């Protein structure tokens, strides 16, 4: 049993960091080749990583101010076939330890913890990268829910600088690994919503995990809605459909992108709306 005094202050707050989506290769290549995405929408970068947990893999990232969409064009790393995942991060050092204490006290919540190591800039020796809390979503889940805390050592090695209050901000980490701030012409600001298609037990497991950290959960005819800091998750329940992420909703700077629609080889579609929002759909 964990006492209240063992839970660090401030209360650990997981904020959406990035969303992982498996797309087909033509859609992946179409996003990578899109001048609009690269010049007018978000910071675009292909990543080649070698993780102690996931192994070697490559992804295409589309970044805003604090958050990132991470596209996989081939199978996502893992022991089971994966289609997507939600990755939250803690900006206050020590939060992952406090988060694990909270999860240990919560009934019906399962998780696994790892200290993930990664090589950087071609180094053969891996160094501690981040603390990983992986929510238990059932055996063979094609969806992931991660709560991460980057280590100060890796944050610094990547070129990030802590804020004045010591927090390791998502924006500073992105600026460091992507080589600077968004340009004045790039419209993407941040992820504000995600819709997932999944079964009832998986939806409830996600909701229970996030509720531990103060997210509110409501039920409607289509499934569950989970609300947290700057984010709304819609967990649409369907026991027969392929479980996956179907939509990401984004806040954008409307003056930097005119309303329009962009189709990426039939596997993905980005819709720019006139009200400072965008919706990215995935088949």
Percent of sequence in beta strands:
35-45%
Structural class: alpha+beta
Q: Give the helices and strands as they follow along the chain.
A: EHHEEEEHEEEHHEHEEEEEEE
Radius of gyration: 18 Å
Major sheet summary line: 8 strands, mixed
Specify the helix fraction band: 10-25%
Distance between the termini: 44 Å
From the spread of the alpha carbons, the general shape counts as globular
The number of domains is: 1
Q: Would you tell me the overall average pLDDT? A: 91
Task: Give a written overview of the molecule.
- By secondary structure, this protein is α+β, with helices and mostly antiparallel strands.
- It has one domain (4-282).
- The chain contains six helices and 16 strands.
- It has helices at residues 25-33, 35-41, 95-104, 152-157, 170-178, 200-211; strands at 15-22, 43-51, 55-63, 68-72, 84-89, 111-118, 127-135, 143-150, 188-198, 216-220, 223-228, 231-237, 244-252, 260-264, 268-272, 277-282.
- It has an eight-stranded mixed β-sheet with strand order 2-3-4-1-5-8-7-6, with helices on both faces. An eight-stranded mixed β-sheet has the order 10-11-12-9-13-16-15-14.
- β6 and β7 (127-135) form a beta hairpin.
- The protein is globular.
- The termini are far apart.
Using brief descriptors, characterize the structure shown.
283 residues, alpha+beta
Topology of this structure?
Elements: E1 15-22, H1 25-33, H2 35-41, E2 43-51, E3 55-63, E4 68-72, E5 84-89, H3 95-104, E6 111-118, E7 127-135, E8 143-150, H4 152-157, H5 170-178, E9 188-198, H6 200-211, E10 216-220, E11 223-228, E12 231-237, E13 244-252, E14 260-264, E15 268-272, E16 277-282
Parallel strand pairs: 1-4, 5-8, 9-12
Antiparallel strand pairs: 1-5, 2-3, 3-4, 6-7, 7-8, 9-13, 10-11, 11-12, 13-16, 14-15, 15-16
